[in-house]
Predict the 3D structure of the following.
Amino acid sequence: MSSSVSSSASALLTRDAVASRLKSRYRAENRFRFACASALVVGGLFLAVLFTSIISQGYTAFTQHFVGLEVYFDPDVIDPAGNRDREVLASANYNAIVRDSMKRQFPDVTGRTETRKLTGLVSNSAPYELQSLVETNPAIIGTTETVWVPASDDIDMLLKGKISRGGAEETRRVSDNEIAWIDTLEKSGLVDRRFNKRFFTAGDSREPELAGIWGAVVGSAYTMLVCLALSFPLGIAAAIYLEEFAPKNRLTDLIEVNINNLAAVPSIVYGLLGLAVFLNFFTMPRSAPLVGGIVLSLMTLPRIIIPARAAMQSIPPSIEEAAYGLGASPMQVMFHHILPLSLPGILTGTIIGMAQALGETAPLLMIGMVAFIVDVPASIFDPATVLPVQVYLWADSTELAFVEKNSAAIMVLLAFLIVMNLAAVIIRRKTERKW
Amino acid sequence: MSTVSSESTLQDRPLDSALDPALNPPIDDPLLEIEGLSLWYGDAQALRNISMKIPKNQITAYIGPSGCGKSTLLRCINRLNDLIPIVRTEGDIRFEGESILDPSFDTNLLRKRVGMVFQKSNPFPKTIYENVVYGLRLQGISQKSVLDEVVEKSLKGAALWDEVKDRLQERALGLSGGQQQRLCIARAIAVEPEVILYDEPCSALDPISTNKIEELMLELKKDYTQVIVTHNMQQASRISDLTAFMYLGDLIEYGKTDELFIRPQKEQTEAYITGRFG
């Protein structure tokens, strides 16, 4: 025990004592740094796992197997009368033509079930493709052509190695016969793997090999357009009013608190609101991007207002004073100085808000954007779905082939989000200002 | 605008500026007349019944310790205090006989006639050229020939022309602190005001830049009435014709600068200028 407090303190503060404690201080420092770095590493790992699993499952969806059919456009089947009447051409039995082409390849296949299985190697869109060929060019009737049609989803999966050829036949989705046929076709060069253009140009379909993402992309675009058109001007006007004109009193305090609360409301609640107000009360069209956009803009509004106000607050008041000091009116101060200077912040906030809206699913489920919609929407009033909901729908499907479609759809969605967030970062970088 | 007229105020005030002869130096040609001006920030009173006359084409300096209300008083002259919602004023300021505190008096017009230079130089993040012509653009003047002429005249007037004439289209924020402050002066005189207010214009500048600004102010005397708030008593004594000493919202003493610094009438003034407090 030391005799007095001061002497015990100075004993602890001698150069040696301080130096001996220095080591443990540095150790603590290093531990702390290590902990922080490992948090980052863990986060990065999760991200890597996520991306690897999505990409490894999804990249195969960008290609698709096609089967070459030696089609004889039989005049007796298509147009027995020979007068090339459009209605006759449209209602001909193209299924029979596909079946006949397949049977010519495999003449020894007999019996109803086996024949159906043989025709099932190709997508059941094949007859429609033949029909459209005939309708666009009736001169084709009577000739023999090699027509490439998509393989059916199971065959596609088999060829991509996602359905195993081993194991008992009953536990497989593809029978031994089907495997033998497709192998024969492959040997004679009638199977080809091509870029899956349809995935980027078609709407949804019950058949995985025909399903595309374009309907959802267009739906998302319309929804975002409505959302942006509503929330950007409203959000900025609200932010300007609150920041520059509103008196500071209890009412504006209450508004401010509630804007912050709105940003934290679970998104499905907005969906319920949309259902009750826009669909049931205002009887707006169900499943339409119009309603989706309105609902999402309610959700996006606080996410635009809050960063916009922060951006306006960060402008030094000296700029404002300088302008007022020269006789500027409040509107001139706003449009000459505050808005241009806070625009980077406002835009970043808006883009991030839009990116969140783009990824939103729950509120759209409530207003019917979850419906199965084949047609690509042509306007904001048409029934549509959006990318994340499309992912949700495909995740619900039982066909194995939808798994890869699903991952591919996620990749498309992520690509959009990454582009948007990158744009936000670039805007911020380019316009960063030092005072 | 109503003036403070109740007797109780006069009795309560030990120092009533209006009645004190020491506070009324003979001014023949007042441009601004402040009369019985009081100002409150919410409940806190920042100015107490100030009365004084500011002469034309002279430099009037406000000195006093921090928080004495000198900047507040300065900002009453161009009604920049209007930007603060909780501010309430009583009394009157007359500008060539017109009551400028009257709510019907147009502030935009007033601020065109009363320019201001701030403590922290605050050029806009635009080009030098655009900074100077901003006041004209506000009024819808956009003829290139007029603007060019004003830029040259104002920058020459602010003794900045020779330094920046080759880079008018460069960003104003690239200028040095002293240059920025002179640019702010050029920006203020571009709209040809009658009065220029300076709120501690040199407090962030080095002595050489300060010296340039002071020379400039003396140069500008022939055309403008100037009012400056300064912490620096040497500065006040160097450049001003009249000096007002303020303390805790009161105008303690107002007089010719030479007399005030050599023979202060009030004890508080003497204490402050000799450095015993403040």
User: Anything to note?
Assistant: Strands of chain A lie at 63-72, 144-150, 191-195. Chain A has three domains: 5-59, 62-199, 214-431. The two ends of chain A are 57 Å apart (CA to CA). The longest strand of chain A covers residues 63-72.
